[in-house]
Amino acid sequence: MPVITAAGRAASVLSAVAVLVLTGCGGGGEEPVGLETEAGLATTAPPDEGGDEPTPTSEPTSTEPADGGGEEVDPEPTFTQPHIPGDDPSVIDLPKELDVEPPSEVSGEEQEVLQAAGRFMASWQAILFGADEEQSGIRDTATGAILDSLVSFIAQAEEEKWVFTGDPMELTARSVSVDGDQADVELCLAFPGWIEIRGGGVTPYPSPERYALELERAGDGWVTSNTQEQDAAPCDQ
User: Fold this and answer.
1) What's the domain range around 196?
2) Any long-range contacts for 147-151 (C-beta under 8 Å, 24+ apart)?
3) pTM above the 0.85 mark?
């Protein structure tokens, strides 16, 4: 089965929905615009004509690469998104952590908080892409009210056939602060090429958004305990 990129997924999704619309299964709104060496075998040389002795058969040339110095190959994506229209599956990777661009110079402890925020956002993104509790790892990155909310969303998304597709979120921290066992992060979220699919309907997802994250210390690390959406205007600057 083919593995399709974010642009390919979006085009495939929108094409499938266009078919549904033409057959009377879609809504009456406008269709959103879509986002878009073979190894040779060694041969033996023929014997010299008229010669007393035949030319020895040549050994096949080895095509194995030399040890060391090769480029590291990323593992193949393995997660198949649910509820995607069309015949081609959307097979993606679910990263354990998303990079967070820091606001400026940060301390070592503040960097740990940003990395924890990146892990939480990766779990949240995985859920939006259709992952369940175990696949998303949300119980390792969140606690309290936000954990309960996202676990509830998993069930709701399955019931409503609700999923998102696109490239990984782009995260920029506007601020980060640590006060004892509590920490706060203000994040701008960009959603490159994101499409929202809900009950068969398809809508391009707006970007950016801005969130305030509250984190608390848990053992040797940090987990997110609450989030609050804020006015996204500063993220456009």
Assistant:
1) 95-236
2) 150/123, 150/124
3) no
